[in-house]
Design a protein that fits this description.
Elements: H1 4-17, E1 25-31, H2 35-47, E2 51-57, H3 59-67, H4 71-85, E3 90-95, H5 108-128, E4 130-135, H6 139-144, H7 149-160, H8 164-170, H9 172-180, E5 183-188, E6 191-196, E7 203-205, E8 215-218, E9 226-230, E10 235-237, E11 240-242, E12 246-250, E13 253-258, H10 262-269, E14 278-284, H11 296-299, E15 305-310, E16 329-332, E17 341-344, E18 347-351, E19 354-355, H12 365-368
Parallel strand pairs: 1-2, 1-3, 3-4
Antiparallel strand pairs: 5-6, 5-17, 6-9, 7-8, 8-14, 9-12, 10-11, 12-13, 14-15, 15-16, 17-18, 18-19
Helix pairs in contact: 1-2, 4-5
């Protein structure tokens, strides 16, 4: 018997997140997830009148392919993936992994080359299709969250199928404030950072792109970032875990970067000219996600958090920065994490993880659950 939660999540992805229509083509791209859910997702896609295409991947196989990848193969993959992406109107991806560090022994230069070569496919998908991306609950994710496998699965399905329509409604005032704001100031232990988001715009993320969801994002004016930011959550990039990442900015550029693996951190930030500039600034407010678990699709939505992202900017909120990299780094500002403040144009917007203005208080956890 199929888990009834599978059907509920599949229906949400097809009907709410991607708003699939009759006649559309949909690429379902899955890695290390149960066939039972892939089947439910195919059925949910077909129920809308859309046509599903399915790509089934395995992380261990992917690692082996990456280890021996050269420029010739990367260009071939780009051509194949781009051809297929241009044939679909929507993209649904689910990523499971029994080992979050599966690709940690792939040489950094190989990962950089492959990411840079394949970046046009991701850019096309992000900007030209309806899409949603999510992780699949695995024992390794449960372990990272310090939870039993069963408890984590219950948490996962609760957070992934919450009332996103309600979240969409109450996020609008924050979106409007970010659209109008100029100067932003971030304050936290080890953090004093100033930048402008004037004229960039803002986008609410409420279940239509990522599941789980719960953020509004903008982007700094490229040369405006000055100061220092100290992230207090671990982050995994290309299979390597980093902690205590600290970035110093001058006129928009990371001029000094340190952390638990400073050498590799700087190697990644040297991927290309845009990797040391910022492509996203966002505030997270999912009421059910409170602690980091080294999975960015969850961590960037943590209630009372923000993320600041070296690398590629989205076209929806574009400062012109281009990079093969997009690395979301998370700072939690709730009291138990050291607290902190966010200011827009000299108005206190959020203090110690809670929104202060009356129109934003519905986004606080007690009101959003």
């Amino acid at each position: 018997m199929t888990d009834p939660r599978y059907s509920k999540l599949a229906k949400l992805l097809a009907e709410y997140s991607c708003e699939l229509k009759k006649g559309e083509n949909v690429l379902v791209d899955v890695t290390d997830i149960p066939d039972e859910f892939t089947v439910e997702l195919i059925r949910a896609v077909r129920a809308t009148g859309a046509t599903p295409l399915v790509e089934t991947r395995h992380s261990r196989v992917g690692r082996e392919l990456l280890r021996g990848t050269d420029q010739k193969r990367a260009k071939l993959m780009r051509a194949v993936e781009m051809f297929r992406m241009k044939k679909v109107q929507a993209f649904i991806a689910l990523r499971g992994s029994h080992n979050a560090s599966e690709s940690s022994d792939v040489p950094g230069k190989v990962m950089q080359m492959y990411s840079k070569t394949l970046r046009p496919v991701q850019d096309y998908r992000v900007n030209k299709t309806k899409w949603v991306v999510l992780r699949w609950p695995t024992p390794s994710m449960a372990q990272a969250a310090n939870m039993s496998t069963e408890a984590f699965e219950d948490f996962y399905f609760n957070v992934c199928t919450l009332d996103y329509a309600k979240m969409a409604k109450v996020s609008q005032p924050l979106k409007k404030r970010m659209q109008k704001a100029d100067k932003v100031r971030l304050v936290a232990p080890g953090t004093e950072l100033d930048f402008s988001i004037k004229g960039i715009g803002a986008v609410e993320c409420v279940g239509s792109r990522n599941i789980p969801d719960g953020e509004v994002f903008s982007c700094p004016v490229k040369p405006s970032v000055n100061g220092v930011i100290q992230f207090n959550t671990p982050t995994i990039y290309s299979g390597t875990k980093f902690e205590n990442v600290r970035l110093e900015f001058k006129d928009g550029k990371v001029v000094k970067a340190t952390g638990s693996n400073t050498k590799k951190l700087n190697e990644i930030l040297d991927t290309d000219a845009g990797a040391r500039y910022v492509g996203e600034f966002a505030l997270g407010f999912n009421p059910y996600i409170l602690n980091p678990m080294c999975d960015i699709l969850f961590d960037e939505k943590i209630a009372g958090s923000l993320h600041f992202t070296p690398g590629q900017a989205y076209e929806d909120c574009d400062n012109g920065n281009r990079s093969a990299m997009h690395w979301d780094m998370v700072l939690i500002q709730r009291p138990e994490w050291g607290g902190g403040e966010i200011w827009f144009d000299n108005e206190l917007i959020r203090k110690d993880g809670l929104f202060v203005p009356k129109d934003l208080k519905p986004l606080n956890p007690a009101n959003l659950k």
